[in-house]
Request: fold
Amino acid sequence: MNELKEIVIGFLGCGNVGGGVWRLLENMREEIARRDGLSIRVKKVLVRSVKKVRDCGIPQGLLTDNPDDVLADPEITMVAEFMGGEHPAADYLIRALENGKTVVTANKVALALNWPKLQAAAEKTGAGLYYEASVCGAIPVIGALRGSLESNRISNVMGIINGTTNYILTRMSEQGEDYAAVLADAQRLGLAEPDPTSDVEGFDAAYKLSIMASLAFHTRVPFEKVFHEGITGITAIDIACGREMGYVLKLLAIGKRSGDVVEVRVHPTFLPKDHPLSMVGGSFNAVYLKGHACKEMMLQGRGAGDLPTASAVVGDILEAALTDKHRMPTFSNTEETDSALTFTDNWTTRYFIRLSAVDEPGVLASVAGCFADAGVSIATMMQKGRSDDGRVPLIFITHPAEEKAMQAALRKLDPAICHPENVIRVEE
Amino acid sequence: MNELKEIVIGFLGCGNVGGGVWRLLENMREEIARRDGLSIRVKKVLVRSVKKVRDCGIPQGLLTDNPDDVLADPEITMVAEFMGGEHPAADYLIRALENGKTVVTANKVALALNWPKLQAAAEKTGAGLYYEASVCGAIPVIGALRGSLESNRISNVMGIINGTTNYILTRMSEQGEDYAAVLADAQRLGLAEPDPTSDVEGFDAAYKLSIMASLAFHTRVPFEKVFHEGITGITAIDIACGREMGYVLKLLAIGKRSGDVVEVRVHPTFLPKDHPLSMVGGSFNAVYLKGHACKEMMLQGRGAGDLPTASAVVGDILEAALTDKHRMPTFSNTEETDSALTFTDNWTTRYFIRLSAVDEPGVLASVAGCFADAGVSIATMMQKGRSDDGRVPLIFITHPAEEKAMQAALRKLDPAICHPENVIRVEE
Reply:
């Protein structure tokens, strides 16, 4: 056998994902040597506590609580980061790149919020910046966007990219359970964090969408431009009514580009039940794309978990180790976005509107009038039997309408006769 | 703007795909220049007839019927091939690689049957060998297998990788139509070739499986090792009976590796109706993978068509043009397969068996006895009402059994009392 090329790596962080990467590297050591001619040596692992024993089997002697042991060691040429959160991870990554170390990160927050700085540091020294694991774990969506889809003008990227909320919505949908009960259960099962805010309010999906949309649309899509609304206001009633009308509810991350106008938004969304994304249940993730040449495409798999995420990290480590010239995103990733582009928050979509109305003659005419005045046209209406408080639930699906027209219509409704219980966007 | 790097390309062939590649390169010229700093110039296009006017708009002056104009021109550093078929395409590709030209091919037949020779030629000169378009058009399955899945031990790769047969089976399934009628219709619509043999007999899928399985299992899986059985014997009755039992029929390409034993087979297959591949209808393609780290994954999209295939070809052209060191498959791709591996044709799976039996007491006992004697255990039995000829249709689903045991059981059946109408394998 030829002599192996040794790659000396430092880890930043060692939680579930870091432990998974350690185990996968150990587990694949022989194959990586035989197939790729590489020997990957982890020299130092930055942790908070060097005393805590790690389940994954990392030798205690590799642990350090001094970042310089990783960032300033000239023997370490590659840094793999799984600390999560913006700070201090982003600062460490920038230092690593400035010191010429290639970075492999699973950290969507640090990347989404600091991409231009990271890329500038990488370009200065020629170091590589790899982040397949930052979006949807093992699913090779970053690789596809940077690789074979480069030949496309992508108009749509839509995804179920948060497993926690998909698990919650799938259970609410299948068993008619309430949000709070399912969330509590998901927390017990370790499928939701003790503080679930980042998942259930859509932050997590918005970070990932910012990264995917930047690559898909070849322009920086800053996190701040991504509208996000969570699932905390969703009730089992909404889901049941939607289902009766042929829809499935998902927390969807949506990026669209039409000419020079881009919209990026994360919100609960009704999808037709035969849409490919509607079939993606439980904690699975999936990304659906449309390009002018490739047409429709969907990539589906495990978007989280220690080994699926480690699969992407180790894939990046191997790619980086086997590359002479690191490939950068093919767009000008500066703080400024492409000045020719406009981000709109006045997208056009269909809406599911559930109202609670008093049971009197003329109510329907009044409601319909408010929509018509705002230029919103109704496609379907469903009236459910009278509820216990004597009010009548009215459900509408609109034709495609502008977000602002829709909001204006809602403001026109007379609170004395009806009020909106929920408004949920509908995609085709 | 920085000066562009010019890449001079020759085309081998110019049918639908070649025309699509030309149009896509023209259509993306400005983006490719701006994003990638590249100018792709097609210098010569090898065709059968230089007089035929091409719809795609290739200038007549680029056409040649002399292969040397492409293969021997030192200015041409990259060759893109869309001739299809083994000869003379493979010979041209080998010559191109021997002359140091990087090859981008959409030709599954030439690749599957000549991969070791192609790779040896590439290794000799350091030229690149790219073939994303050879399997499933725009779906980035080759990229995923060569890229982020490199960190996995893949145990399963299963796919619907022939759009023609999926279209036919979907229509037979949804509308209860007969094979011959749907095939004729598909031919009228241009979805099946005038000679449909390669698609409907499973050759096309077997070539593609040979390529995918080689990459997934990191060993050469020769085409000759791939068992293949087509869909010509499938009737609307089989599909309807399977559906009653909760199954959907697909022409499936299946590669499995367990330890050092590999099985590779293409045949009509019943899948549970909630399997992710069961939802893939019409002319869509999809590949389902299982790896020890990534877990389950599915990639779905347009597996054929001029622009989807061109999307993959142009993706490869860009990747090759931006790479300094071409990445080769990380396995020893010689004529010999890995000697530690065994290919088995005695796989274990479940079977759907549809028998036509005489309507007499004791028939069921006799049939069940034949299965039991061969060690095949029955999981489900369904008896349909008597048919017009006074015979009784009996349908069995077996527990997992070895292929050879199953064949032995069928041979034991007494032709005086029953005969098999069809036997279809079942995957979970």
Chain A touches chain B through 55 residues (CB under 8 Å).
